[in-house]
Amino acid sequence: MATDKLPLSQILPPLIFGTATFNSQFNKDPYALDTKGLVEQALSHGVRAFDTSPYYGPSEELLGAALSTTFVRKHFPRESYHILTKVGRISGDEFDYSAAWVRKSISRSLERLKTSYLDVVYCHDVEFVTGDEVMEAVRELRRIRDEEGTIKYVGISGYPLEVLCSLAERILRETGEPLDVVMSYAKFTLQNTTLATKGIARLEAARVDVVPNASPLGMGLLRADGVPEGAEGDWHPAPPSLRAAVARAAEFTELHGERLEVLAIRYSLESWLTVGSKVGSMGDPASGVPWQPELNSQLGGQKLGVSVMGVSKASELEKTLMVWRSILDGMENGQETASQAGRWKRAHEWSLNRKKAVLLLAEGVQEDCLAEWIDHAWESPNADYVAKKFTKQTLEPPGSSLTPEASPEPTDRRGRADDIMTSLPVR
């Protein structure tokens, strides 16, 4: 076990840029996204962690290229940000958690991401394989960490909380070492809060250091325009009745002057900062303001719940960071921080009032629109799933119908007013 490094909870930022959107599930042609511009914009606004996976199509390659531009290398040395990736999941129904594949996958990720080390590596979607397979992968990741030094922290990710908790408990019991991190997704949202009510206590008891909450929109479910459809069509597992309830929620929020996705994002990000603080981190938060770093100590110096956000456009990133900035303004020392940074002196008061309004409307959505679907979880894997062992000798995943194109050069967005996404109001 490596002992010469800080716990992950001391250094991981509370806001992580998730790049699952750099994938054909969410975008018909991920190569057409301005991924370099997005990453540069995120870094300049204080984002210091990026989550990816080999399963996310070209995500690792696009992120690696974006982190290797002259601009990024000049202003943001590798040690200033964190890269989180995964092993084990290859395609929708293909997995390989063997030690041999883990080694190959790590080597490939290092090459794609153009880095000499990975800050965090998860076993991806652990519910699709056996517990013994997860144990083999975790042991190999820790061996690589201790003997080769190309990995710093090891964790698991997945959807069913029971599986995540049981595996965290087993890993501690059988190895004597707890997991550094367990990432849960779509389990702390407007529609499902079981990560807080059922997950935290068990994961904390299993001595898991950090529990990031990913997918605050429930894999895109909680949107006024419905679930996202990329090149793979409608892949979302939510049943029709739940989708209908979400559509009613969108109408309800519209009547009260809100977009459902804005409400859902703010509710999740803001609530998890405190609800998830026991399994949170003390890394410096993204300030949300260009070239204006902010320290954890400026927000009270306590652990903050960690969230993973995902965006595809500069306008989406801009709006998300404005919401994030407003949330931080409402925290301890928020008034002083805003004043020192030259922002509105009443930003703290505005943020607290906004929080009350968000919670009130969120309760309305939960009571009047989603009541029968609160804490509903879809099957993962579904009942007819049959795991297939990945037997190909090549490292390349199954082919995509897309023709790769070079990621566009980043766009200079200084002074650009036409890039504002008017359908996502600033809140």
Give a brief description.
The protein is of the alpha/beta class. It has helices spanning about 35-45, 60-65, 70-75, 100-110, 130-145, 160-175, 195-205, 240-255, 260-275, 315-330, 335-340, 345-370; strands spanning about 15-20, 50, 80-85, 90, 95, 120-125, 150-160, 180-185, 215, 305-310, 390.
Could you describe the 3D structure shown?
Helices cover 37% and strands 11% of the residues. It contains 12 helices and 11 strands. The protein has helices at 35-44, 59-66, 70-75, 99-112, 131-147, 161-175, 194-205, 240-255, 260-275, 314-329, 334-340, 347-368, and strands at residues 15-18, 49-51, 82-87, 89-91, 94-95, 118-123, 151-158, 181-185, 213-214, 307-310, 388-389. Residues 391-427 are annotated as: Disordered.
